[in-house]
Amino acid sequence: MKKRVCIIGSFNGGPGAYVKALSKELAKTMDVYIITFGHEKQEYTDEYCRKIFMLKIGRFKSFRALWVAWKIRRKYDILHVNHVILANLAHFFIRKPLVLTVHGYNTYEAVSRGKIKENSVSFRLMLRAEKKAMERADAVIAVDEGRHNYITKKMNINSKKVFHIGNAIDSSIFLFDFDRYKVRKYYNLINKKIILYLKGLNIYNGPDVIIRAMPQILKKHPDAHLLMVGGGPMNPMKKSLMEMVRELNLVEHITFVDSIPHEKVPMYYASADVVVVPSKRVSGVEEATSLTMQEGMASGKPVVASNIGGLKEVIGSKKEKKIGILFEENNPKDLANKIIFLFDHPEVAREIGENARDYILKERTLEDNVKKVLEVYNFVFEKYR
Predict the structure, then answer these.
(1) What does the alpha-carbon distance between residue 68 and residue 203 come to, in Å, rounded to a whole number?
(2) Domain boundaries along the sequence of the chain
(3) Each residue of 341-381: pLDDT tens digit?
(4) Most buried of 3, 129, 239, 254 (most Cβ within 10 A)?
(5) Which of 61, 76, 105, 69 lies closest to 90 in space, CA to CA?
(6) What is the pTM of this model?
């Protein structure tokens, strides 16, 4: 009889792309139920035989997701959640074997977004809830070494139930020979050197860093153009970034694009000459194994990323073959120098991109990732025998 898993997680953003890819692969060997969120409520079985429960985005979504999970609790054997709030709620209301994937530093990310102040009462309560969620889960998955150390050392969670499984992507969708001029034509950038930023417009993603690097890049390569993809018109940081662009006289050299559907993402990577991931530490929060980094690498593009967290863990792991370039965190001058180097040496850029694609196909496959997740599930099933 097939094992059965229920996964609760958003289909949006980086973690959402991972949930989509993971569940698609899991559906080959398990019955998969997914509780996620969208613009309208619906229930359907998709082409991969996943049973999808789509809840409308809105208030109390964690409680509504748990309510659905409770109603279908007899249909699955294990519950896999992607947020500490859900883990705590599930412990009390669902009472099923529980796996928690930790994608970030929940409490410290709230500080970095300005929602709470460090060492405040709210901070201490959130940190305690985060720790409790990890204690209550039967197994915890950390998506990079930094998260693993945070869970086992700072939170003091038993290392025997904490598993380091790096994020992975469905690399197959980036391997087609996409028309690299389709996006360029749409934005009238045919003969430009395209620098692609494809992340949310948040302070910890460092969009300001690449903007501040542009004047130096343009002095050497006046045909450079920054394509900034991510963040809708209501994004709170977008206004200040656009003001920065005007102050630096970069309006003609930077194009802002609102968030795009994930199925269109490969075309944007195909258009790029360089992909940038300029993330920076905010309140101790570091970028994990960035999906933007991995998608850029899978697309055969040279990636220039900050030397922090999971970015450094991946790009710095290969000594014999360069699979990307690291620059000093929050240093626009160093970022500019690294991009100029790639523009000046297209043969090196091409080699780095090819090495990066090989690395993803050999060492960051979704199939290997799923095997490791299945090992975690088996660890939990053994516990309940």
Answers:
(1) 34
(2) 4-168+365-383, 171-363
(3) 999 999 999 999 999 999 999 888 888 899 999 999 999 99
(4) 254
(5) 69
(6) 0.86
